[in-house]
Amino acid sequence: MVSSSLLRLGAKAAGEAVGVGGWSYAKIVEHLSPAVSKFSPVVAERGSGSYVWTTDGRKHLDFACGIGVLSTGHCHPRVVAAVQEQAAQIIMAQQNIFPASRPMVDLLQRLETVMPSQLTSHFFCNSGSEAVENAVKIARNYTGKQNIIAFDGAYHGRTYGAMALTTSKTVYRQTFGPFPSGVVNAPYPYCLHCKARQAAGGLGYEVAPNTPPLGKAYDQRQCCGGPLESLEWMFKTHSAPSETAAIIIEPILGEGGFLTPPPGFLSALRALCDKHDMLLIFDEVQCGVARTGKWWGHQHLTDAQPDMLLFAKGIASGVPFAGVSAKPHLYDKMSPGMMGGTYGGSALGCAAAAATLDVISGEGLLQNAADRGQQLAAGLLRLSEKYPIVDVRGRGLMMAAEFGGADGSLAARPHTAADVTHAAGLRGLLLLGAGARETVRFLPPLNVSESEMEEGLGLFEQSLEDVFGGGGDVRSA
Ligand SMILES: Cc1ncc(COP(=O)(O)O)c(C=O)c1O
């Protein structure tokens, strides 16, 4: 039950919603696809750093960051300057007509310093979904095999090929089938809800296992081995290795709930791929580009290297830009014309991406993401003593809190996460849910300050009080 204070706040805010240019909010949305979810009745006006102002005059602390896109915050001056300068030079140097542009060369040089060393061949496109589609093309072409193994709960995008690999929520797929064939789903380890762990009375998993130095060290976490066994079984029952081109995985699951697989899991996938001549694709669209306090999310979990790494979102601070970074020999069987796209590698996007990488390196944002992530995890752990948060997990500034029941069980009341994000929105904190369970995710800018993080935690606490306070939902300490 949402508390009455929350309902009062909701009524007030709904009355305040203001349109723009003589159009009411209601009229604006009448002209927009109703199939796109809209989290708040506000119209964006401008952004700066960690804040957004809307046309109703309100200021919002943005811990959603365009779903993890605004890595350097809103309108970072160096990114803005790079985009403005580039727009005055050349906006678009089409990739078929000009193999490269000056800002593309700048970007290639920077990628050389941050990418895993064997991934030296880059294909640029505009969105994460496109990167996923192209990775599948490369894998099938190179291996001559058809099937792709994806994981339950994964989100790889909304185009048909990417949607076929996506199972984080049914709403992304329902009524849209049939989907392209050749996709096999394997279980992604969700240790909190693992039945073997529960049967064994814990099996080395406690709240915050993924946030060293807080809580139990991640490395000590034991795995029941179930997900890997399922994979081996799938090779016998669903897709023989001789038919399987690749395994695609988010090294830290994003939309599906910010899950980190147990130690050894990614390395085991690498070994399976090597054994069966399959490719390993890391989809780092959400967990990559310093989001977790390392350049790439997988670097927290394994020394094993992927054959392809996909990036988008945070790479260009909000300018649409994405890519597939691959081992060069994967193109041995391709000929010119087999891949492409009108806008891929636009000069504007390259300039924004190069500037973003410079800001991340030059302003110490890897360290800041790690430090502020610790601050966030500590704050959420503190709140878990008072409110029904059953797990705090993630790395760096990719952090989540999962809710459970008021009785301390894992069974949360339906819509808890939506109620909390709604309450936070009314208090001026932008947050998103994640996955099919009741989880709220935090994706602040990588340059969020210590005081902004404290402000965010304070607003989050007030939102929890709005939702749980006064009712029967506050966990008795
Ligand atoms: C891991 C992952 N892959 C792919 C995508 C799709 O990216 P886009 O929305 O840019 O197509 C997303 C988007 O959230 C994502 O999180």
- Please state how the strands of the largest beta sheet are arranged side by side: 4-10-9-8-7-5-6
β content, as a range?
A: 5-15%
Structural class: alpha/beta
Radius of gyration: 22 Å
Largest sheet: 7 strands, mixed
CATH superfamily of the largest domain: Type I PLP-dependent aspartate aminotransferase-like (Major domain)
End-to-end gap:
20 Å
Helix content: 25-40%
The low-confidence runs, each spanning 5 or more residues with pLDDT under 50, are: 1-16, 472-477
Based on Cα principal axes, name the global outline.
globular
Indicate how many domains the architecture comprises. 2
CATH architecture of the largest domain: 3-Layer(aba) Sandwich
The helix count comes to: 14
Bound molecules: pyridoxal-5'-phosphate
Mean pLDDT metric: 91
In the CATH hierarchy, the third-tier topology of the largest domain is known as Aspartate Aminotransferase, domain 2
H and E string: HHEEEHHHEHEHEHHEHEEEHHEEHEEEH
Total strands: 15
CATH class of the largest domain: Alpha Beta
Would you write up a description of this structure?
The protein has 477 residues and is an alpha/beta fold. It folds into two domains: 4-68 and 365-468, Alpha-Beta Complex (Aspartate Aminotransferase, domain 1), CATH 3.90.1150.10; 77-362, Aspartate Aminotransferase, domain 2 (3-Layer(aba) Sandwich). 34% of the residues lie in helices and 14% in strands. The protein has helices at residues 4-16, 25-30, 65-68, 77-89, 102-114, 128-143, 160-164, 195-199, 226-237, 265-275, 347-362, 365-384, 416-426, 450-468; strands at residues 44-48, 51-54, 59-62, 121-125, 147-151, 183-186, 244-249, 279-283, 308-311, 322-326, 389-395, 398-403, 429-430, 432-433, 439-442. The strands form three sheets. The protein has a seven-stranded mixed sheet with strand order 4-10-9-8-7-5-6. Helix 7 (160-164) links the parallel strand 5 and strand 6 (183-186). The longest helix is centred in the C-terminal third of the chain and has 20 residues, at 365-384. The structure holds pyridoxal-5'-phosphate. Residues 67, 127-129, 132, 155-157, 250, 254-255, 283, 285-286, 312 line the site of pyridoxal-5'-phosphate (PLP).
